[in-house]
Amino acid sequence: MRPAAEQRAGRPAAIDHIGRAKARMAEIRTLQGDAAMDVAEYQDKFYAEAPPGWVYNWKNHSIFNKEYPQYFASLQRNGWEPVPAQRHRELLYPEYNDENIIIEGMILMERPKELHDARVRREHQRAIGQIRTAEQKLAEAPAGTAPRDENQKLRSSMRAGQTVGPADIP
Q1: What residues have CB less than 8 Å from 88, skipping those under 6 apart?
Q2: DSSP readout, the chain?
Q3: Rounded CA gap, 117 and 131, in Å?
Q4: pLDDT per position as a tens digit, 110-157
Q5: Domains in the chain: boundaries
Q6: Environment class of 110 (CB within 10 Å of its CB; exposed 0-12, middle 13-18, buried 19+)
Q7: pLDDT of residue 1
Q8: Portion of the chain with pLDDT greater than 70, in percent
């Protein structure tokens, strides 16, 4: 603590942050016991395990309390459906009455794993195709320029996902 003369001069008194932290920890221990100290007790508020054959995913339900029904309709067209709230009551507070699981603007949705895996494979193949197209365009010589045959070996050996390190300087 500062001397009384400093406090009278209009300066704020020093705050005992360590004492404040110790007092708060005493309150927490009283409310939660020693489990409050155990890091392993932490539970992710968004964790929910999907049943076999299904995939869960958190999707946007609202942004700043504004809902986007066209986005929700596109999710449903892609096979996503809301997970019923009664399936995962552990994620919700006791008085929760909504039929879907909505936490912080996110809604828990599910779709069959078979459909999900097929969509993921298709998106992966589409991305690989875009990379291959870009590689071909890089290898082609623009009209009116010399062919790039001298780089044929480099073109055939380089692929997306590979890196080339620094060149040796003689």
Answers
A1: 48, 101, 108
A2: ---HHHHHTTPPPPP-HHHHHHHHHHHHHHHHGGGGG-GGG---TT--PPPTTEEEEEEE-EETTEE-HHHHHHHHHTT-EEPBGGGGGGGS-TT---SB-EETTEEEEEEEHHHHHHHHHHHHHHHHHHHHHHHHHHHSPPTTS---GGGHHHHHH--TT----PPPP-
A3: 21
A4: 999 999 999 999 999 999 999 999 888 877 767 777 666 555 555 555
A5: 4-41, 54-112, 117-157
A6: buried
A7: 47
A8: 72
Dihedral angle sign, alpha carbons of residues 111, 112, 116, 118: negative
135 contacts 159 by C-beta, under 8 angstroms: yes
- Side chain identity, residue 148: R
Residue type, 111: R
Q: How far is CA 107 from its chain centroid?
A: 14
Note if the pTM is more than 0.85: no
Pick from 117, 114, 103: which is nearest to 47 by CA? 103
Q: In whole angstroms, what is the distance from residue 86 CA to residue 32 CA? A: 27
Within its chain, how far is the Cα of 15 from the centroid?
Answer: 38
